[in-house]
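Now for my pick.
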Amino acid sequence: MPETTYSLLVRNASLSWLASAFVARLPYSMLTLTLVLFGQELTGSFALAGLLVAAFSLGGALGAPVVGLLADRFGRRRALLVLTAAGAVSMAALAALAWVPVPLAVQVLVSGLVGATNGQVGAMARAGWSAAFAGQPDGRRKIEVAMSYETVADEVSFVAGPILGATLAAAVTPVFAVGVAWALLVIAQTTFAFKLPAARTLAGGITRGRVPARMAAWLLLSFVVGAVFGTTQTGLAALFQDTPNEVWTGLVYGAMGVGSAVSGLFAHRVLGRWSLPVRVVGAGVGMALFGLGLALTQQPLILGLACFTLGLCVAPLLIAASTGTERLAEPGNTLVLTLLATALMVGVGSGASVAGWVIEAFGAPAALAMPTALGVVAALSGVLARLTRADAHGVRQAVTTAA
């Protein structure tokens, strides 16, 4: 009987591996909101704080493929240890800005460096599962279970990280929250790095780390999901700004992460009978329909429910993107998985930017209608995946390195 539960992940890795991989995600997820509060205290302006966050996101988007190349060329352990050291230095420099007055350009540069040194733990973990399950009996199903778990871990960290960072910033100071993120980075990411293989997973190194052309559908899908995140969070912030419901902004948006985590837990069981393109079309249509709830009400509880149902469609889309990408490349190819992270981050930034323009021109409800249109685009990316056979396995190379 094929294994279809997360118990197979514990048997193939360990609880300590799973725990360290999860905690190592928290430092950078904490900074998404902590940096807003830290930047506002640093500059006295939320607008200027937004520049720091933009630099952080851009640095992460540009740095992710480089991380993938380094991991495939020199091995994931070496790459992550180097990135941990670089991240610790850049994050310490960020904290030091609280005491060392520097021009805004330097603050933006430091924020960009912090983003660029993100070790992309999620992509590292996914590449590990890809290498571990390659060639195993029922390996295709096992990899899909692993990708489902990693999506859940990402979503939980995306919710828990900002809450932890904002709570520490409010209870103590924003710079203290940055300091806690630094400590978690050094401890958890180093621990996880030593649980990764020292040798390269790809025997051919960087030459085998090429990007399959059929990956276009999955890159588009990741971009679209990121755009949903960006438009929703920007639209909600604008809708609730300067109203009694402003305190609900984070909780309402967080419901999307909860919905995604819930669906991610069961996606490998419920959706396993359908091909990846069919799942994407179905989830995209669902996103378009559920997205209508965001534009038709201004009540926080109903908006929270709409975000939750929208989130139910997010995990199947992200799981399809990572599973399909993994099938196209060699087992353990980190580069292609970091490219998904780049597409997602670019989507978040683009979505937030376009939503801001829409808000200025037409109001917040118009921006909150954008996920409906993006759901249609997501469904079309499923059609593209079907036409290009983006869910088919590419040339698989034998590997012997475990996760």
Summary: Residues 203-209, 395-403 have pLDDT under 50 and may be disordered. Residues 139-171 form the longest helix (33 residues). The chain has 16 helices and no strands. The CA atoms of residues 135 and 389 lie 21 Å apart.
